Amino acid sequence: MKVIANMHICEANARCVEEAPEVFNVDDDDEMTVLQETITDPELQEKVRRAVARCPRAALSIEE
Ligand code: SF4
Questions:
Q1: For residue range 17-39, what is the model confidence (pLDDT) as tens digits?
Q2: Contact assessment for residue 55 and residue 4, using Cβ atoms and an 8 Å cutoff
Q3: Which of 10, 47, 51, 53 could form a disulfide bond with 16, CB atoms 3.0-4.6 angstroms apart?
Q4: Where are the alpha helices (DSSP H) in the chain?
Q5: Cα 31 to ligand 1 centre (Å)
Q6: Is residue 60 within 8 Å of residue 3, measured between CB atoms?
Q7: Pocket residues for ligand 1 (CB within 6 Å)?
Q8: Which CATH number applies to 2-63: 3.40.50.300, 2.40.10.10, 3.30.70.20, 3.40.1190.20?
Q9: CA dist., res. 64 & res. 56, Å (int)
Q10: Contact 4, 63 (CB under 8 A)
Q11: From ligand 1's centre to the CA of 16, what distance in Å?
Q12: Could you tell me the distance, in angstroms and rounded to a whole number, from the CA of residue 12 to the centre of ligand 1?
């Protein structure tokens, strides 16, 4: 699984960080970063799917 973030529409509200802090980070300057783009662990993949579903800006997508 590969995570793709559209930084043009992300508003750094950190919903994705709440779901998968191993994969997403929002720093003190309100900048969201994808910490790992390729996810192989099934449990982590599930967290990422929840993060994608919860993103209020639809800024995240995944490629299987
Ligand atoms: S949940 Fe969406 S809008 Fe919020 S920080 Fe994550 S990618 Fe950005």
A1: 999 999 999 999 999 999 999 99
A2: no
A3: 51
A4: 15-19, 42-54
A5: 10
A6: yes
A7: 5, 10-16, 24, 26, 32, 55, 57, 59-60
A8: 3.30.70.20
A9: 22
A10: yes
A11: 6
A12: 5
Return the percentage of the chain with pLDDT > 70, whole number.
100
User: One-letter amino acid identity for 55?
Assistant: C
Spatial separation of the C-alpha atoms in residues 36 and 40, rounded to whole Å: 10
* Contact assessment for residue 52 and residue 62, using Cβ atoms and an 8 Å cutoff: yes
Question: Which atom of ligand 1 is the closest one to the Cα of 24?
Answer: 6
Q: Which atom of ligand 1 is nearest to the CA of 14?
A: 5
- Look at the block and give the residue holding tokens 């995240």: 60
CA of 44 relative to ligand 1 center, distance in Å: 17
